[in-house]
Write a structure and sequence with these properties.
344 residues, BirA Bifunctional Protein, domain 2, 2 domains, seven-stranded mixed β-sheet, rod-shaped, binds ligand 2U9, tRNA binding, ATP binding, transferase activity, Phenylalanine--tRNA ligase alpha subunit, Phenylalanyl-tRNA_Synthase
Length: 344
């Protein structure tokens, strides 16, 4: 029995020695130390031994068990250390390698131009107001001196949702709402940037959805010269001190008299070129004195109050300022286009 135990020990230790993985070790453990293993078998047969031999064999069996257990434990630690070393080698990071480039975004050109225009008007004491894009017929047309049947409110030109609701065709309803909110008792000095919608076929200069910034100043004794002064300051700040402005007579249902403003062409310096179509001037916005009907409908007494209003398209302003040749560039969001203006 002694020999058998020594044999088993030698066998087990050799297998431990040859083990390559924790599962190999587990196999040895189960095979030699498990309940159905040969050592347990030997111990079971101890009943047949003499009284003197029994403790000696018992002790030997225990020593063999301990030796195998210890060998397994030692080998397990060795294998774990090897595995850890292998992982460390495999997962090592070379901190000297150049980093992967991180592409950083930036504000959209349209966002930048709108914010620049907002800042300019905030500097002249205007507040910024916003309003709903789904509007009622009343605020979008009626309150702006465009009664039912007016040619400028052709059903074909607007996106109607119901008979009374439509996608706003301009930001003017925001101004009508603001005047109404102020209840005809205090001045209004505001600009309203936002999206507007028209049933247009998209091309290089038209879009069914675009941006507007409209301004309104209602107070006592507001004059056309105030409008001219504000717009002159705006144009020179945005396009450069060397640019001139001129006002031409025009027509809008909500202003009377109405004007359109041109800015001198930077490309030809006023001599005439392809950009200004030979005129030396480029149209940038429209405006005028608020029509008395509009004041009255919003609750301002036209005998006491008057005001000026203007409207512009930031896409057009950005196209002129940055030489963008197609309005659709603002909406297709090709990064090759957008990224050119991150530092503009
Ligand atoms: C109220 C009273 C008057 C807003 C105005 C214009 C002239 C104008 C267009 C220019 C190009 C818009 O972006 S565009 O399509 N706008 O020319 N807008 S006067 O007049 C108002 C607005 C609100 C209560």
């Amino acid at each position: 029995m002694r020999e058998r135990l020594e044999e088993l020990k030698a066998e087990a230790l050799e297998k431990v020695e040859k083990a390559y993985s924790p599962s190999d070790l587990q196999d040895v453990k189960v095979a030699y130390l498990g309940k159905k293993g040969p050592i347990t078998e030997v111990l079971r047969g101890m009943g047949k031994l003499s009284q003197e031999e029994r403790p000696i064999i018992g002790e030997l069996a225990n020593t063999v068990r301990e030796a195998i257990t210890e060998a397994i434990e030692t080998k397990k630690n060795t294998l774990e250390a090897i595995e850890l070393e292998r992982k460390l080698q495999e997962e090592a990071i070379d901190v000297t390698l150049p980093g992967r480039p991180v592409s950083v975004g930036g504000p959209h050109l349209l966002t930048k131009i709108v914010e620049e225009i907002e800042d300019l008007f905030i500097g002249m004491g205007f507040e910024i107001r916003e309003g709903p894009e789904v509007e009622t017929d009343y605020y979008n047309f009626e309150a702006l001196n465009l009664p039912k049947g007016h040619p400028a409110r052709d059903m074909q030109d607007s996106f109607y949702i119901t008979e009374d609701l439509l996608l706003r065709t301009h930001t003017s309803p925001v101004q009508a709402r603001t005047m109404e909110e102020y209840k005809g008792s205090r001045p209004v000095k505001m600009i309203c940037p936002g999206k507007v919608y028209r049933r247009d076929t998209d091309d290089a200069t038209h879009s069914h959805q675009f941006t507007q910034i409209e301004g309104l100043y209602v107070d006592k004794n507001v004059r056309m010269s105030d409008l001219k002064g504000v717009l002159n300051h705006f144009a020179k700040q945005l396009f450069g001190e060397d640019r001139e402005i001129r006002l031409r007579p025009s027509f809008f249902p909500f202003t009377e008299p109405s004007v359109e403003m041109d800015i001198s062409c930077k490309v030809c310096g006023g001599d005439g070129c392809s950009v200004c179509k030979g005129t030396g001037w480029i149209e940038i916005l429209g405006g005028g004195m608020v029509h008395p009907n509009v004041l009255e409908m919003a609750g301002y007494d036209p005998k006491v109050y008057n005001g000026f209003a203007f409207g512009m398209g930031p896409e057009r302003i950005a196209m002129l300022k940055y030489g963008v040749d197609d309005i659709r560039h603002f909406y297709t969001n090709d990064v090759r286009f957008l990224s050119q203006y991150h530092n503009a």
